[in-house]
Amino acid sequence: MKNVITLVVLCLCSATVYAQTATISGQITRLNDSPVSGILVHLLNWNEGLIAADTTDTQGAYAFSDLTTGQEYTVVPQDNQEVSYLQGVSTLDVVIAARIILGIQPPETPFVYAAGDVNNSGSLTTLDLVLMRRLILGIDNSFQNSPSVRYLRTNASFINPDSPFSGINYGNSTLLLDTDTPAFDFYQIKMGNLNP
């Protein structure tokens, strides 16, 4: 009888431990929704220690499974591919940025606005226009304060939709894991490319 009770307790404990794990998964796409393969995705714990890494497949998908629930995790896509700063950046992007700054054309999404913030100041200004022009003309070969590519959660939004210049809520790549979390998705933003 004692062996049966011990076995039942062990089975319940095993089921409880198993029930306390979950999965974080998502997809990385460009703004035109085309998947981005080969991107290294890191999973960090609460003190930024590396727990796991995955590489996006041909559909841009990544997944981390068997994660302990009740813990805080951060998902960090990292560009392990060399992307030219000039790739996708043209005079048309400078024109679009100027129209946004002048209030002639509102940014279609927070992601277009973020792509124009090439000096990483948190806002789109005429300095960003100057830096894009310098890149196009070959005076500079990079944006000094910005990587060529950024990754933003797909749930990013304008803080005040009626005033895009009030800033962007970039979305949080950190979560307290309670249950399976599918669709923890990111956009790959090519800096300076406002016309993806």
From TrEMBL:
UniProt KW keywords: Signal
Pfam families reported for this sequence: CarboxypepD_reg
SUPFAM superfamilies the record matches: Cna protein B-type domain, Type I dockerin domain
Signal peptide positions (record): 1-19
InterPro entries, per database record: Dockerin_dom_sf (IPR036439), EF_Hand_1_Ca_BS (IPR018247), Ig-like_fold (IPR013783)
Top-level taxon of the source organism: Bacteria
GO BP, one annotated term: polysaccharide catabolic process
UniProt-recorded name of the protein: Dockerin domain-containing protein
